[in-house]
Amino acid sequence: MKKKFKNGDFSEKKIKKTDIYKMKVIYRLNYVCFLLILGILFFSCVSMPIGEKETCSRHLTAKGIKSAQQLTDFFLSVNNTKSEKEIKELAFLYIREAKDEGINSDCAFVQMCLETGFLRFGNLVTPEMHNYCGLGAIDSANPGLWFPSAEIGVRAHIQHLQAYATTQSVSLKKELVDPRYSWVHKTKYAETIFDLAGQWATDPKYGEKLDSLLTKLEEY
């Protein structure tokens, strides 16, 4: 028969006071640890930048970071007269063609926006030419090159950028469609968008204009 202690406990052994003290200490330590972890998490969340913008590289052979939807949203924020479907298809082409040739799709896309006035055109080049970077556009006698489709027009643009951004030791992955490629590949070189000023265009602020557009693109 179990022995009954004065406090009414029928267990085989009394719980020692030291055991109770140890349990209280462990409980308090656990509680303190919990508060410390909670505090660390709180201050981490406060100090962590929320919604920090991704930085687009200005190097022509860097990897573009913006998706087709982000490129589309950026474009439509300036010219909303174009359909989202049309611009997204064009953005997909730029991402794919740029990836194939190792070119920065973000830089190429904003250059298209600059060269065409966000597809408003209005100068020598017209929409049906599928010329997205002013290739061969000099004067009324030489309004620019024609390409059979948007796909080929984008490919020609990417190939022209690749001609600037690489040395002759780097070959194209796809069939050549840019008639001016070989001469540029031999005589021109540009690592960043800023190096295009005075080479791609005579405008000394050409690189700054591209940089401004990339800064705006970073908001999307």
Helix fraction? 40-55%
SSE string: HHHHHHH
Estimated structural class: mainly alpha
Strand content: under 5%
How would you characterize this protein structure?
- 48% of the residues lie in helices and 0% in strands.
- It is an all-alpha fold and 220 residues long.
- Helix 2 crosses helix 3, helix 3 runs parallel beside helix 5 and helix 5 packs parallel to helix 6.
- It is globular.
- The termini are far apart.
Spell out the key features of this protein.
disordered N terminus, 220 residues, globular, single chain, 48% helix, mainly alpha
Short précis:
The chain is an all-alpha fold and 220 residues long. It is built from seven helices and no strands.
Fold blueprint:
Blueprint: H1 17-47, H2 68-76, H3 84-101, H4 105-116, H5 150-165, H6 181-187, H7 206-217
Helix pairs in contact: 2-3, 3-4, 3-5, 4-7, 5-6
